[in-house]
Amino acid sequence: QVQLVESGGGLVQAGESLKLSCAASGSILRLNTMAWYRQAPGKQRELVAAITRYGNINYADSIKGRFTISRDNAKNSIYLQMNSLKPEDTAVYYCNALAVVTTTVGQFEYAAWGQGTPVTVSS
Fold it and tell me: Which DSSP letter does residue 88 get?
């Protein structure tokens, strides 16, 4: 079982910054791609940014140049530095990880999700 715990959300004004953190724990053999998703009220969950174990990064067009994803493999953690926040960035932000775990019948990969951390940007 893998647990993901996010932190760092909050209420800020437009133009300000926040940094989100996500730490994974549990019976982890390896964490492959990790990502941040967000879900605004009344909208579908969308990918914000993803980072592979080797540091390859993919960003959503809407946040390019403002958000930066990073990763610390030694700490099983990822981060999302969010600058120049806009009201449209308001959402619950979720951490996702493709985790490889070992069981009695072998190894397998599954997608783990955190509980989410809310970010509210006021205008």
Answer: G
Does position 10 have pLDDT exceeding 90, yes or no?
Answer: yes
Q: How far apart are CA 62 and CA 78, in angstroms?
A: 20
Q: Which two tokens stand for residue 74?
A: 């030694």
What tens digit of pLDDT does each residue of 67-112 get? 999 999 999 999 999 999 999 999 999 999 999 998 888 899 989 9
Rounded Cα distance between 55 and 40, Å, is: 27
**DSSP bridge partners of 72:** 77
From 97, 115, 103, 91, select the one nearest 39 (Cα to Cα). Answer: 91
Q: Are 46 and 39 in contact (CB under 8 A)?
A: yes
Kindly report the backbone phi and psi dihedral angles of residue 75, in degrees, each rounded to the nearest multiple of 5, phi listed first.
Answer: -105, 5
Sole residue written with tokens 């009695």: 104
Q: Other CB atoms closer than 10 Å to residue 115's CB: what's the count?
A: 11
Which residues on neighbouring strands pair with residue 6, listed in sequence order?
Answer: 22
Q: Which residue has the tokens 């990064």?
A: 57
